[in-house]
């Protein structure tokens, strides 16, 4: 499965690092931008990533300076379950309990090693179903598009 990645200008370098990291792990990457560190608006790329994740029934990693803005935009889309995470444990739980299909990260908050650790935890974790299935179903169809 390919991982869709996107960011704003504040997280451009981290997005590029994550792309290289995922490729080094043999994971296909779909980069929705931006293509440079020139100033841009995070909603544009969060919307593009969200639409791609929904269309591909895939997973994505979104970054901005704090991770807050991109998570707010992504969670407005029907079928997106975006989790803003600060630790590998949170990233793992976002998959296990919430079936998060978009991981939101803060480039100005976390180090390269922390970002990689969160991505690894998120990719390795599986949704646990069971008691979580009904909870996720209650909000899965909320949103636009």
Features:
14% strand; five-stranded parallel beta sheet; 6 helices; 145 residues; Ribose 5-phosphate Isomerase B, Chain: A
- How many β-strand stretches? 5
Q: What is the terminal separation in angstroms? A: 23 Å
- The backbone outline, from C-alpha atoms, is globular
The second-level CATH architecture is 3-Layer(aba) Sandwich
The assigned structural class equals alpha/beta
CATH topology name, in short, is: Ribose 5-phosphate Isomerase B, Chain: A
**CATH-level-4 superfamily name:** Sugar-phosphate isomerase, RpiB/LacA/LacB
Commentary on this structure:
With 145 residues, this protein is an alpha/beta fold. It has one domain: Ribose 5-phosphate Isomerase B, Chain: A. 48% of the residues lie in helices and 14% in strands. The protein has helices at residues 12-24, 42-56, 68-74, 88-98, 112-124, 131-140; strands spanning 3-6, 29-31, 59-64, 82-84, 102-106. It has a 5-stranded parallel sheet with strand order 2-1-3-5-4, with helices on both faces. Helix 4 (88-98) links the parallel strand 4 and strand 5 (102-106). The longest helix is centred in the middle third of the chain and has 15 residues, at 42-56. The mean pLDDT is 96.
């Amino acid at each position: 499965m390919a991982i869709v990645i996107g960011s704003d200008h504040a997280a451009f370098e981290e997005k590029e690092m994550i792309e290289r990291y995922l490729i080094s792990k043999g994971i296909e990457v779909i980069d929705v931008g931006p293509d440079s560190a020139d100033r841009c608006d995070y909603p544009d790329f969060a919307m593009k990533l969200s639409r791609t994740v929904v269309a591909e029934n895939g997973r994505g990693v979104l970054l901005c300076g704090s991770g807050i803005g991109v998570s707010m935009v992504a969670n407005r889309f029907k079928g997106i379950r975006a989790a803003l995470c600060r630790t590998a444990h949170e990233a793992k739980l976002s998959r296990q309990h919430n079936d998060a299909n978009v991981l939101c990260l803060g480039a100005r908050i976390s180090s390269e090693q922390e970002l990689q650790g969160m991505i690894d935890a998120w990719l390795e974790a599986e949704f646990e179903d069971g008691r979580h299935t009904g909870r996720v179903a209650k909000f899965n169809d909320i949103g636009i598009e």
